[in-house]
Design brief:
Blueprint: H1 4-10, H2 14-21, E1 24-30, H3 34-44, E2 50-54, H4 74-78, H5 82-98, E3 103-113, H6 119-133, E4 140-142, H7 143-149, E5 158-169, H8 171-184, E6 188-191, E7 194-201, E8 204-212, E9 215-226, E10 242-253, E11 262-266, E12 273-279, E13 282-286, E14 290-291, H9 304-317, E15 330-339, E16 354-359, E17 362-367, H10 373-385, H11 413-419, H12 423-429, H13 445-454, H14 460-467, H15 470-473, H16 482-493, H17 497-514
Parallel strand pairs: 1-2, 1-9, 2-6, 3-11, 9-17
Antiparallel strand pairs: 3-5, 4-5, 7-8, 8-9, 10-13, 10-14, 10-15, 11-12, 12-13, 16-17
């Protein structure tokens, strides 16, 4: 592997990093989630010299802790957000076309019981959904047909059900694929390097003071883009008021909650939508929607009340499976960057639109959703364009990923989608037996080797929670497989035994706190 991607993501030396940061940049993007990655890609592919910095790891925040759905926002249509839904459907269809293996269709099934209301309005919304997507599906199934689509749902009083199609992804891998594409266009991206303060010349922002990992320097840029999402604001103290909302999730073994389609339901306690769907060899359950009042400098975690809430929904919809807390493999929670609406409104009623605003030398974005990251990036660059005389790109929308020649049956669809042009190199790097799947997951052992070798892994949780999702998919965060993980990854990472032991200890402590079952009552 060669080129700037390799040099940066391996962080081959402090001198190389210092040389990189000493350049003058057209655009400095602060924030390594999906919004920042999207801005970096759209800027780089249009000829701008663009650098992204992230104070934690790439996708550390919301963009590795979402509901993993690339969806059109059917519930937003119900609330009258037609424009947002149309934009989301358009972006979903684009991602399905250009990222097969990474963004995949996901069928949904919604059971309808005797006496329940809303069937007609739901079907009317789906008809409009179909028009937006340019296709037509059959949406109503009688009880017998519905049980074939979702055989484990509660049968008492079942009148039939509604089925439709959206899409799912691995959110962290989507961020990494976008970053990879940006670096192929000449951009640069550095993790574990954060912006401590903005630099100003008069009343104009002209760069940022960066700090992290022993580095403390000033970086100059013609425009700075704040893409820090739910953490937006402290650098510049401007923009709309954000309402951080926490969405928490459970991961269960597929054999305990086997699903061919996603099952969507209304929670028996408050009528909020809850879903369960097959993801990466397990079953993902979500989500809550609560005001997050915790320290934003610490990673969010699920509460005992949220575990009980989600389990109550599962027990109501799948009573004969007799699911308990013992079935939970892991948990995770993310904080959504939602623009605050009226005071006192319910969290689930807040919109998911994004906003972008600017001041001299600075553009900031907030709000939005995973599905619409390209649209968010283009809106941000329209404001950047106003501050870069001589740069006159029309900013027309184009596919996120350039076509990558498929190397035939030797490159599985999943690897091709997740790694793009690197998939063949990943296969070449694999040792005997490493193309087998890790039990209980869809992840190949070779993906661990490739991540350790070529994807800027700085800590063990980077490897097991974001480059791969083994920390979520395996019981106890993968403890039973740690010897083989070590054999594959320690030589690639260049860590001595003391460093490996330190990383394992830190990872286990982090996993217990943020991905295990909470102990508070």
């Amino acid at each position: 592997m060669s080129g700037p991607f390799s040099a940066l993501w391996r962080r081959s030396g402090r001198a190389d990093l210092a040389e990189l940061l000493a350049r003058d940049w057209d655009v400095l993007v602060i924030g390594g989630g999906i919004s920042g990655a999207g801005v970096l890609l759209e800027a780089a592919r249009r000829g701008l010299q663009a650098l992204l910095v992230e104070r934690h790891d790439f996708a550390w925040g919301t963009s590795s802790r979402s509901s993993k759905l690339v969806h059109g926002g059917l519930r937003y249509l119900k609330d009258g957000h037609v424009r947002l839904t149309a934009e989301s459907v358009r972006e979903r269809e684009m991602l399905l076309r250009c990222a097969p293996g990474l963004v995949e269709p996901q069928g949904f099934a919604f059971a309808h019981y005797d006496g329940a209301r809303g069937r007609r309005s739901f079907l009317a919304g789906l008809a409009l959904y179909d028009v937006m997507a340019g296709r037509r599906e059959r949406h109503w199934l009688d009880a017998d047909e519905f049980l074939m689509a979702a055989p484990n749902v509660k049968r008492d009083g079942l009148a039939g059900g509604i089925v439709y199609t959206d899409a799912r992804t691995d959110d962290a891998r989507l961020v990494l694929r976008v970053l990879r594409e940006a670096l192929d266009h000449g951009a640069a991206a550095v993790n574990y390097l954060g912006a401590r303060a903005l630099l100003r010349s008069g009343d104009r922002v002209c760069g940022a003071m960066l700090a992290g990992d022993g580095t403390d320097c000033e970086v100059r840029a013609r425009v700075v883009v704040d893409a820090t999402g739910a953490w937006s604001g402290p650098l510049h103290g401007a923009g709309p008021r954000l309402r951080p909302l926490r969405g928490s999730h459970l991961v269960l073994p597929a054999w305990r909650l086997p699903l061919a389609r996603a099952v969507s339901l209304m929670h028996p306690h408050d009528g909020r939508p809850v879903f369960a769907f097959p993801w990466e060899g397990a079953t993902l359950v979500g989500t809550t929607d609560l005001d997050h009042t915790g320290d934003m400098e610490r990673a969010a975690r699920i509460t005992r009340a949220e575990v009980a809430y989600l389990m109550a929904a599962l027990q109501a919809q799948f009573p004969h499976l007799q699911l308990t807390d013992e079935d939970i493999l892991s948990t995770y929670a993310g904080v959504r960057p939602v623009i605050a609406g009226k005071e006192g409104g319910a969290p689930s009623q807040e919109g998911r639109e994004h906003v972008a605003w600017s001041s001299p030398g600075l553009v900031a974005i907030a709000g939005g959703k995973l599905t619409t990251f390209r649209a968010i990036a283009l809106d941000a660059l329209r404001l950047v364009k106003q501050q870069l005389p001589g740069w006159d790109d029309p900013l027309d929308a184009c596919a996120v990923f350039a076509p990558v020649p498929h190397d035939g049956p030797g490159v599985p669809r999943r690897l091709h989608g997740r790694y793009g042009a690197c998939a063949a190199a990943l296969l070449d790097a694999a040792r005997p037996g490493e193309l087998e799947r890790i039990p209980g997951t869809e992840t190949a052992w070779a993906e661990l080797r490739w991540a350790a070798r070529a994807e800027a892994v700085r800590h063990l949780d980077d490897l097991l929670l974001r480059r791969t999702r083994l920390g979520l998919l395996l019981r106890d965060g993968g403890a039973a497989h740690m010897d083989r993980i070590r054999a594959i990854c320690q030589p690639e990472l260049g860590w001595d035994d003391a460093r490996w032991a330190l990383e394992v200890s830190a990872y286990r402590a982090h996993w217990t706190t943020h991905h295990g079952l909470p102990h508070e009552h």
